[in-house]
Amino acid sequence: MTTANQHTVVDDTSVSALLERGRRLATPVLREAVDRLAPPMNTVAAYHFGWIDECGRPSEADGGKAVRPALALLSAEITGAPPETGLPGAVAVELVHNFSLLHDDLMDGDEQRRHRDTVWKVHGPAQAILVGDALFALANEILLEPGTSEAGRATRRLTRATRMLIDGQAQDISYEHREQVTVEECLEMEGNKTGALLACAVSIGAVLGGADDRTADALESYGYHLGLAFQAVDDLLGIWGDPEATGKQAWSDLRQRKKSLPVVAALASQEEAATRLAHLMRTDAKKTQEEFEDFDEAEFATRAALIEEAGGREWTSAEAQRQHTTALAALEPLDMPAHVREQLIALADFVVVRQR
């Protein structure tokens, strides 16, 4: 996959440093927040974040890309404030993101995340639900603790984004049981499920730094469209991603019968492959999940090939690039330090060329 903005070369070093800064500054505060939870929720959360293994031993497991904390800290610098000003926002957004992952993994039946067993698989569904709820409560607690008017404004944006995220998950589940979903419905769902929280992440630090609503709204627009680009790439990886890179099973989204963008776009095409794909999916819908999961790899490969033949893969890749372009356009009217603008552009480029 090529970058959406062909004249921009992704600076991996710059992006890696930005993501590492997000992890370095946010992780200690994140750990302190998790330590507030009652046992065993604190250790279950620590396992989810990759700090310990299933036996409670210290671990250095993959804790995720940390794009959202990086964005929150960077957005604080737009106002001229130090990145640490955005730290409550960075931690709050990461807590909400992980609350959604814990619940999503359970609802989707995902057994692997970040190259190891998911929380519900190791600690049971009840703990996955409880710890997810606890992380959401912690997010608001952390964000409101400064007691400033800026903290109140930031919390309103976070709670709205969380509600949209939940709306998106509800839409995602309902679409699984529908024979037909339009591209527009799929984009609305993904805008809620992924775009809303990224939009919040890239505005919340600026709000904590004292930015006005016009600036915060423009940053949200950048983050929202970046989220749609992010999700489009995620949908591509959910079908064609390398399990070694993604930490998920091969054909993971096909195994779950997800109506992701490549699938919906393929079905909407006029290609003969779309008719064959629709027939297979109608047959698949009559099977139990256990029967469906007993398919051999060739069955999933056939479905992936039909999606590609019908144009779903190419359309989704182009959509990621379109959303990338729209995200960058939202930054144009804003005044900000040159290095912040460069890093926001580099992060956008990273999102559309990533392999996991």
UniProtKB/TrEMBL annotation:
Belongs to the FPP/GGPP synthase family. The lineage of its organism: Bacteria, Bacillati, Actinomycetota, Actinomycetes, Kitasatosporales. PANTHER family: (2E,6E)-FARNESYL DIPHOSPHATE SYNTHASE (PTHR12001:SF71), GERANYLGERANYL PYROPHOSPHATE SYNTHASE (PTHR12001). InterPro entries: Isoprenoid_synthase_dom_sf, Polyprenyl_synt, Polyprenyl_synt_CS. One of its GO terms (biological process) is isoprenoid biosynthetic process. This is Dimethylallyltranstransferase. The keyword Magnesium applies. One of its GO terms (molecular function) is metal ion binding. Keywords: Magnesium, Metal-binding, Transferase. It holds the Pfam family polyprenyl_synt.
